[in-house]
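Progress report, Aim 2. The chain analyzed during this reporting quarter is listed below.
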Amino acid sequence: MKTGHIRNFCIIAHIDHGKSTLADRLLEETKTLSKQDMKDQVLDSMDLERERGITIKSHPIRMEYKHDDGVTYILNLIDTPGHVDFSYEVSRSLAACEGVLLLVDAAQGVEAQTVSNTYLAVENDLTVIPIINKVDLQSAMVDDVKIQIMELIGCEEGDIIEASAKNGIGIPDIFKAIVNRIDPPKDNIDQRSRALIFDSMYDNYRGAIPYVRVFDGVLRPGMTAQFFAHDIEYEITETGYFIMEKVKSSELRSGDVGYIMASIRDMGHIEPGDTITVKENRADQALSGYKKVKPMVFSGLYPADADDYDQLRQALEKLKLNDASLEFTPETSDALGFGFRCGFLGLLHMEIIQERLEREFDLDLVTTTPNVVYQVHTRSGQVLTVDTPAKMPATGNIDDILEPIVSAEILTPKDYIGSIMTLCQKKRGVYRTTHYLSPEKAQLHYDLPLGEIIFDFYDKLKSISSGYASFDYEFKEFEKASLQKLDILIHSEPVDALSIICHSDNAYHRGVALCSKLKELIPRQMFEVVIQAALNNRIIARTTVRALKKNVTAKCYGGDITRKRKLWEKQKKGKKRMKMIGKVEVPQEALLAVLQVEND
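Predicted structure tokens for the chain:
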């Protein structure tokens, strides 16, 4: 296949704007899959994606399309996620493409993630084809949405394609635009071999399998693969491309998207963004790759059964191959034993990783309260990075605490602007600007502390805007703030899994609310359980879980009262001894009580 007959593109959109449905129609139209194999959201292969109705992983697939000029074109589609927590997946997919289909819902218009993903595409110098989806809906606002798209990317009205992925409207126009507007890959077959790893997966029998976009030269079985990230060499045993399943091919040439197999057993040897070359035609310079993202939210993952520690480590290594934005380091907790401190891009990302570990690897996990990373300046002049309250130095040694601030972008119908501004101010937000994309739709810019928004900000935003507002953010800087560590003590012993770092203004209320919540969640014992909240070693709230009382005098029928008193005294001594040596089991619901306190 000539390089000029190849088109590499991806679809970008906000959640639920019809991205997976459009991919289904493209596959149907090109007869890539038979009718028996076709199903709704065919590229969403995980049960989790179908249940939640979102795309989590990017899925490459190759289609053959016969154009009006009689030429058959190879179209490589890389489907992408839409949620802000998976924007790293999008950036990696864009690096492997020459063009994008920008999909906007005719009923909802341009939303925050649409803007964010479009800017990513423009930064990568890709051709953007704007498409308005769901034009057949009664609530469609096609003319308004056209104004919003023209405002966003500065295109002409005639460049925008009207379509309905569900009913197949406009699909032929989309194919023509892909062939006519998106540039083919450069024909660099004579250059030294270079391929960009944009994703990978692990196969128990074949090892780690990198997914690559070949930019220069050719990769064939029998060649020796070399990586710029390390010095280990592997012999390529198979190359191929994707039509749902992997399909073998004799080679991957300049412009192709596919996979290579080389019996790579060490999962650490595959890094998304790394460049593969071959010993026989070695390139001197790596491809530019893409910017490494930093995790925003940190949480501890611990196996419920300590014997599953090694299994959890292997599961995290395999998931990291499939999700390069996940980071983890071993950690020990006094309350929970051995586990891992994991870094995530957001709360949804954390939920998805936890569910995938439990479903795909059959693990039973205990998760600690999510935290963001803080910078602590000590009196001795050191700058410490603190991603868990347990690492926070003593109050007397702290000079300043800096918290992460994000630049937030909220798109909303103008009717909800007042309520959203009130919410942002409650979350200690600093107002920046308001920009109107159309007479009915506004774009608000705020600087918000990440620690205030990771819990329930998104849910509250959706609630007060009746589901119409959308939200996107990116890290801006660290800023000085009045923060304190709030400790939770059970029987005068601090439970590191329940400690949180919070703003001084909220610390007292959080402590009282958390003690009350824990009182409901910690089961009653045969002895009293004292729960306390402490700030700077000063107790600010206390509650008690009452003891279960056994009726030791049930067998006494009448007689002298001294006999009953003797039994009560004996019980009292026993309970005191039990309290001294008794341990309280803290359930998972109690560990996540902080989140429930935030939502109240």
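Residues 118 and 591 are 39 Å apart (CA to CA). The chain has five domains: 3-181, 194-281, 297-370, 375-481, 486-599. These observations will guide the mutagenesis work planned for the next reporting period.
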